Amino acid sequence: DIQMTQSPSSLSASVGDRVTITCRASQSISNNLNWYQQKPGKAPKLLIYAASSLQSGVPSRFSGSGSGTDFTLTISSLRPEDFATYYCQQSYSSPYTFGQGTKVQIK
Amino acid sequence: QVQLQESGPGLVKPSETLSLTCAVSGYSISSGYYWGWIRQPPGKGLEWIGSIYYTGSAYYNPSLKSRVTISVDTSRNHFSLHLSSVTAADTAVYYCARVTGSYNFDYWGQGTLVTVSS
Questions:
Q1: N or C: lower Cβ tally within 10 Å for chain A?
Q2: What sign does the dihedral B99-B104-B108-B111 (CA atoms) show?
Q3: CA distance A43 to A40
Q4: For B105, which residue in chain A has the nearest alpha carbon?
Q5: How far apart are CA B22 and CA B78, in angstroms?
Q6: Integer Rg of chain B from CA
Q7: Is the peptide bond before A80 cis (omega within 30 degrees of 0)?
Q8: Residue B43: how many CA atoms within 13 Å on its side-chain side?
Q9: DSSP letter, residue A18
Q10: Cβ of A107 under 8 Å from any chain B Cβ?
């Protein structure tokens, strides 16, 4: 199985901050990397697919980059509704695995 | 608008079989896409369980493969999960989702908590 490791596990930030979350795969996955946002008690929401493509309806302050084993999710200017847990997921090979999550909290 | 809704018992006894159904509306399962199940133990991360095509072709996470069956009923536009010989470790929120051609999950149900306890 491909292991996905996110860092940090949690972070504290203020509204307006630029936030970066990293995801590393245990082997090369090309650009087969997706990002999700999950709020408490809710299902995950697809934000970014294929490493850098913005899902329809997702604000442009979210962006993704990377290929191979190292990937980044960036929120350019944090808004109150962005406080949530973020997960990466590899779609390179089955079983499709997720990172452990990064919780973005209010500073 | 594609919508998914999980249903099934919220409490299952150890060693029994967990059975859930996902009803799809706003899209015909027979039109394509894979359809999948993902679970999340309380306070933990996400685990893909398996996915199925409308033809019935299914594939599973090897960690659960011996205990999992996913089936599809195109006439009712729903698909189902059966997980046998459950233990407390199977306690989780179970989500159904649509699987895109790129193997990500673009539409999700709201999730249903299943607790394994006697």
A1: C
A2: positive
A3: 8
A4: A46
A5: 5
A6: 13
A7: no
A8: 1
A9: -
A10: no
